[in-house]
From TrEMBL:
Organism this protein belongs to: Jiangella alba
Keywords from the named record: Transferase
Coiled-coil parts of chain: none
Highest taxon above the source species: Bacteria
Protein's recorded name: Acetyltransferase (GNAT) family protein
Length: 206
């Protein structure tokens, strides 16, 4: 649990465990009849498998992860309401990232990766994604990760839409103590993305 003083609201952050599934659905379920949803699996599944998997099956797959031994991310609550989500876990658990030709590994260190932020309408532009990132650092460290990586976009001072800034921004990661370690061949909104890393001083657990 995290209660922070950096926002005026009562913000608490918890791992996404099975008892919080309904709250996660509030954040990730599709909007509108017939709409499909990513269910935050685009980085966790190989691209081909993700593309073939219909929305309901994606939901089932995420539910399996939430019910498993390692929560696949963190949930943020503002004044008791589910307001934000962060997908974080070992890089080796992110199949698309493992196979990526645009975001290649920097070295052989068994890093963890934070790949996505979702903030619910009504709670945006209040620093919630940054709070989730701070807690992702603590979560990864508590599970023995030697370092945590993100792959944010360099905005150049421009304001990006939520759909394009879901990976976070370099400024946000820098404020959380991350350093740029390599440029990538990936872009968002035609702007470059970076591999940014924070050393956690730990050794990954087997």
């Amino acid at each position: 649990m995290r209660q922070t003083a950096r926002m005026a609201d009562d913000v608490r952050i918890h791992p996404a465990t099975a008892d919080r599934w309904d709250d996660l659905r509030v954040l990730l379920a599709p909007r509108g009849e017939g709409a499909d949803a990513c269910w935050c699996l685009a980085w966790r599944l190989p691209s081909g498998e993700f593309g073939r998997l219909p929305g309901p099956d994606r939901e089932d797959r995420l539910h399996e992860l939430v019910a498993g031994p390692l929560p696949p991310g963190l949930l943020a609550y503002v004044d008791g309401e589910p307001a934000g989500w962060c997908d974080v876990g070992p890089r080796t658990a992110m199949a698309r990232l493992v196979r990526s030709t645009t975001i290649r590994p920097v070295d052989d260190l068994p890093v963890w990766s934070v790949v996505c932020f979702v903030v619910r309408t009504g709670y945006r532009r209040r620093g919630l994604a940054e709070e989730l990132l701070h807690e992702a650092v603590a979560f990864a460290a508590a599970h023995g990760a030697p370092a945590l990586e993100g792959y944010p976009v360099e905005t150049g001072g421009a304001r990006l839409s939520t759909s394009l800034a879901y990976v976070g921004t370099t400024g946000m990661f820098e404020r959380a103590g991350f350093a740029r370690v390599a440029a990538t061949d990936a872009t968002s909104a035609r702007r470059p993305r970076w591999v940014m890393r924070r050393d956690l001083g730990g050794a990954a657990r087997a």
